[in-house]
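Example record

The entry below shows one chain as it appears in the dataset: sequence first, then structure tokens.
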Amino acid sequence: MEDRIDYFERMLADNPDNPIGLLALANEYGKAERYEDEAVVLERYVLRHEDECNVRQHIPQIRFRAQLTDGGIERVEVVSA
């Protein structure tokens, strides 16, 4: 898995705005449970490709997952509507 992450990081070093490279790297970070890195790359994608609202809606979920796995959240409250 790290080989694929390295591959996409090198791809983006040559072309930082490559949409396929950004999404592929974010996907690999997610598989490696590197959720904070995944969220950062997806935010980078959205900034460069503003018409992609589908990706934008997933960023809060990924950030939340990153906080859960990092131990940053001690208690989660569920609020019903």
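Notes for this example: Residues 7 and 25 are 9 Å apart (CA to CA). Residues 2-70 form a domain with the Serine Threonine Protein Phosphatase 5, Tetratricopeptide repeat fold (CATH 1.25.40).
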